[in-house]
Amino acid sequence: LERESSPWTTIQCIIPKIDISVSIIGGYDCKSNSRPYQAAIVTGDKGNRRIYCGGSLVHPCWVLTAAHCRHFKNCLVKVCLGKYNLKKVETMEQCMDIAEAIPHPGYNKKKIDKDYMLIRLKPCATITKAVNVTQLPTSCPSDGKRCAVSGWGTIKSPQTKMQCANVSIVPYNQCNKAYFGRITSHMLCAGVPQGGIDTCQGDSGGPLICNGLLEGVVSWGKFVCAQKGNPGVYAKVCCVVPWIQSTIKKGIRSVYGGF
Q1: In 18, 22, 23, 198, which residue has its Cα 20 to 30 A from 162's Cα atom?
Q2: What pTM was estimated for this model as a whole?
Q3: Which Gene Ontology cellular component annotation is one that this UniProt entry carries (predicted)?
């Protein structure tokens, strides 16, 4: 597996420049501590964080995000959990270094396919009311399934408070037609029929949660977000649960010297 390790100390930071639909458009302020699995990959100092990408805590030591977020190797970044307001130092927040980042071995940058990456935290997270893992799916979501997305907004115009929105799974054929055949078996689409709600630049790597399960990783979409007929595109988590589990298991063994 391809790995990238910390510390990353170069000051210049490369923001992902993929045609991604990466911030909550048409959403609402989340309730504080209502998304304990939400991770924020951030730059900046305490009390003045800047969102780089989102992610989901899938194990106390591991966050799942998008592989196209990997350019943070040139950034001074932290992974923060238990965050709600990026402009405040919050009592429940936990911010960690990145020990290593492992993109999916099948990641295709050109097609933005298999857009998954696991980040190992240093130190591991402490489970609290504000910080907790999300569950992985045992099957793929059905068409029309109601889901939720969350994050902080666009890179250029980030929201201070975490934003939430409700979307539904869009049928594969409908989404594939909207994106001219670019949707692969490792992608799924979600949005609302009338448009107006989507994820846009700033929330790449963030979670798509359906019935309490992590079904998608925010990946890409139309550059003009929340358009009618052009839903957001997510990396489908149900396809890679074995890879997630085996990578975490191998990582734990390497850190702790086996069981």
Answers
A1: 18
A2: 0.86
A3: secretory granule
